[in-house]
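Anyone else keep sequences and structure tokens together like this?

Example one:
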Amino acid sequence: MANPPAIITSSLPPERLNQIATGKLASLGLRVRLDGASQQLRGELAFRAFKLTLAGGTPPPQVANFKVVGHDHLEFTAPPLSALGPIMFYDLPALPALEERVAAALQQRLASLAAIGDGFKRLRVPTRFDGDTLQLVGQVKTVTHAFELTADPAGTRVSRVAPANASPVVLSEPFHLVDLARFEAIIDLELHLAEVVTGLLEGAAALRRAGPKPVATPPVATLEAVPPPGNAVTLGVLAQKLGGAAALGASRPGEITQDFTFKGATYRFAATHVSGTTFKASLSGPQGEKWSDRFDLLRFPGIASVVATVLGAQPAVRDEASAAPAPVGPSPFPSHLKPQVGEVWVMNVLIEREDAAEVRYACANVDGKPFGATRILRRSEFEDVFVQGGTAWRLLIVMDEIRPDHSVVYRQLDRHRQPRGAPKRMEGAILVTTFIPEAMAY
């Protein structure tokens, strides 16, 4: 039988609720006692009709203590059954039916863990089964940190971070939830964890300074924006490349315009989207069209610069596209390693073992040292993701955006140098420790 998840609250006084629960449990053959400190009914359930089974060779309990919640649910007070949450008993006719419901709830939990385990296996993340909490615990290592991921039907969360050469930090609520389905490969998960680790450690330190919460609050589901497709032109890119002074045309939908004055005459720059990052532009004045051409948005120098060049003028207007906000903090990029939009960067991988069916490999940092977990891919998948250069294999990414906070937005390239997957963000400090410009790799 499935366990009804909802608990209905009542306006009846606790004494009356305890009387109702005592009568029902007595009809099932269960005796309970009142705990004077908590004013809760407590008892024990012996499993005779159904024998519980657990994964990983953990011996199941044959007798389990419980407390009564409300007048119609019981909740086990010791592991591993305490992980099941409240179990409805009031609608059951006999004690074997209650044992069956507990056994079904346990098997449902184990089945959910098995499905979660498949996600860990797909990413090649080593896991272990915790028989007390009925959870899976995975381990992910990056260049600088080791992460512990704890997973159950409520979600997968980062539960502990161990910096290199430092004591581990146990994370508490609010947890950082990780959706394993979002990541195509272990390297994507590692890069994500490397990106958020600073915020996780700062949040843990802030919680320690604030002290324990007076009242526990449940985790809050977060709303996450879906990244745009790899070939999409975002509003941010438009503002960066065309400037914030450009406006949508009032007469022609989809047209972007900006007006200028030069030697007493007014000129209008107009651009319309063709496809991808390609636009068609023109400059018109009192005597008609003076210039028209197509341009690549990612390599566009700015509207004012183009207009000034066509008219042979010195632009008094500063291109907002070229006026980037002041960077936040010191730049992590050495003077010779500043990424540029459209530039391809590479990360080397070390082959540990390969045959006709699969490849076992590890990612390497810029010093050539392996980091993170060893991975195994089918040979066809490996050759679709990685590019061979001489005797070396490399992962290629292309820079889509360099942000003022020293992070980058990038896309992975396949063996045909075509973008694959959605754009991703990476901290600049991570980029320069794991990738180098392609021009330096040969």
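And example two:
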Amino acid sequence: MEQFEIVAAARDAKGKGASRRLRRTGYIPGILYGAGKDPVNIQLEHNDVVKHTDVEAFYSHILTLTLPEGSERVVLKDMQRHPHKARIMHLDFLRVDENEQLAMRIPLHFINEDVCVGVKTGGGVISHVMTELEILCLPRNLPEYIEVDVEALELGDSLHLSDISVPEGVEIAALAHGGDPGQSVVSVQLPRIEVEPEELEEEAAVGEGDEPSAPTEAADEPAAGEDDS
């Protein structure tokens, strides 16, 4: 299993102005909380964090956060990105308590798509209704991802939350909280036929030509109040 280590330092200055100044120097403001301890405001080097963000496992692994006073085992709970720039704006880390259940969003890996019955024999396409799943588990049972096998799906078939197999010690959060077990996760459907704009214009033009023109009101008769002379 891949290991991730991130170095952080305590952050004294607070507020939007302080955070903006911090970002200009190449750092990301963040917070560390949980496990019955006081929250700690932290700062992390932007370049040090960015090198991990392209790795899918970074978002679902237990990470090592190294602080001057020691290391903490944490999970990433939230990452705020700039809406237009390739920049991370803020990070939230949750301390891991080995005896406390985690709620985490885990990626779904769809396998056997290339041999799916509904695609090979029915001409269908696979539609991913969900790409990740929120789960509940103790830290030691945290999976990197959950596999969803679509090989047996025929055209028109779906897999639902109740069909998803999870590892021992892991629960699907929606089901644990009384959610709908019939919620769709993935399906095989006929592909949509895309109509080009030019074709729509041609169809509209043909339709207009076929429609009879609306009859006009007695154009040759004088309008009310007009002189016949």
